[in-house]
What we know:
The termini are far apart. The longest helix is centred in the middle third of the chain and has 17 residues. The protein has 4 domains: 119 residues, no CATH class; 270 residues, no CATH class; 84 residues, no CATH class; 48 residues, no CATH class. The chain is α+β, with helices and mostly antiparallel strands. The relative contact order is 0.08. The strands form 6 sheets. A 4-stranded antiparallel sheet has the order 5-9-10-8. It contains 23 helices and 17 strands. The protein is elongated. It comes from Litorilinea aerophila. This is Helicase XPB/Ssl2 N-terminal domain-containing protein.
Amino acid sequence: xxxxxxxxxxxxxxxxxxxxxxxxxxxxxxxxxxxxxxxxxxxxxxxxxxxxxxxxxxxxxxxxxxxxxxxxxxxxxxxxxxxxxxxxxxxxxxxxxxxxxxxxxxxxxxxxxxxxxxxxxxxxxxxxxxxxxxxxxxxxxxxxxxxxxxxxxxxxxxxxxxxxxxxxxxxxxxxxxxxxxxxxxxxxxxxxxxxxxxxxxxxxxxxxxxxxxxxxxxxxxxxxxxxxxxxxxxxxxxxxxxxxxxxxxxxxxxxxxxxxxxxxxxxxxxxxxxxxxxxxxxxxxxxxxxxxxxxxxxxxxxxxxxxxxxxxxxxxxxxxxxxxxxxxxxxxxxxxxxxxxxxxxxxxxxxxxxxxxxxxxxxxxxxxxxxxxxxxxxxxxxxxxxxxxxxxxxxxxxxxxxxxxxxxxxxxxxxxxxxxxxxxxxxxxxxxxxxxxxxxxxxxxxxxxxxxxxxxxxxxxxxxxxxxxxxxxxxxxxxxxxxxxxxxxxxxxxxxxxxxxxxxxxxxxxxxxxxxxxxxxxxxxxxxxxxxxxxxxxxxxxxxxxxxxxxxxxxxxxxxxxxxxxxxxxxxxxxxxxxxxxxx
Length: 584
């Protein structure tokens, strides 16, 4: 649609008269077509366009420039986030519904610059104003909440996150931590076990009894490990090949691959962690893909400075300015809400809160930052306890103090691990390298720690899987434990590498020989198939063995017992019925 056609179809003659007045035209231009022609001529003439540009206020010029540098599209939400408001309009007098026109309206048609204007604006608009987040070098110690000063809690997560993820994998590997059969959650007992071994515990003291869904670190670590392809939900939780390899070699590249898998493929939706949110499972509700949301959050983090404390409020603002914003519900907020469902359904889902975006998308972003990126050590955190936390958003008919366990997140800092995962650094060196010598093993197969005081829970769990504690700092490699680990799926090469890379110097020849013999013994017996024992009378056993069909796979155990392969059960039953017999 040409510029003339646009003004003709979208504005009445009276509204066009307002534009004529703004452009200094004569009030004697009466016909609508003439008014359109006057306006279009002023916009398409370079000199008159330059004069219009000079007459506009600074905020209007910024708005037009923002649209020009965004392929002609004006993102009002991003503009308000960056500059605080839209271009100002004069008072409409007593008619509150009336929207007076300003020169800015000449440029934007249906939220975008008309293609005919784009080349004419090239010499007028200034370069784009890139919004850059600023951080604090020193960690704030307090925050203001409802006019009062509250002390912040600090969590430096890098070392703990790396350790705790490995710890979870080790506990799963040795069968101490299992997932629920129905929900892929940890049982209360497993949750308590994991909590007791975490390097720094959870971000808040656990309740008693400990409930998995009410934790942050255990929940975030577990769901991350599942979504990242480190833990399989089969058999109530077992390590994948990727999980076992990362557990032994602890290479950052493996964690990066796992992190990218979590971002792009994890099916778990973190929106369920916003406890106050309602309607997410209602009929007709379609939630946006969690992978799309995570990708935008991680992309926004890659634009942030590392090593400084960034206000979460500023980061949420930057999400909009950088146009990484997203919806939780397809089509915007229509059916999900916080507060009283009847009020929301009667008065419109966008009217149930002072800031519905903060209480949905904002809280979702805070959950991802804290529960997942904070738990794995990508972000250091500054936060308030639940009783002190208070979001600026306000939902009507909601009586609880908190909307979620993440309300109190105030600042975060990108760690060196986070910089690596977010693509800001090309490599990462763990604080405790995986090849750092930790012990020495003698010919007696006793493993002695070089620095017993530095034994971490994850290393202790690894050693307890393959050895028996003898005294403080000493373990004896245990034949039965190692056989059990190999039967459970641990690759022999991983076991070898675990001992070799942590050993001070080469492994003794006696230990190498013992390990190889143990490996050979672990493969001496193999299960080819399962079998069924069938009880019957002595005559019936003889009849079955003499039958040309049953006799091919049935074997005698004793006078009244047959054994058959489990895979032949259906064939056995069918033949018995043909012979006039049944089986119970």
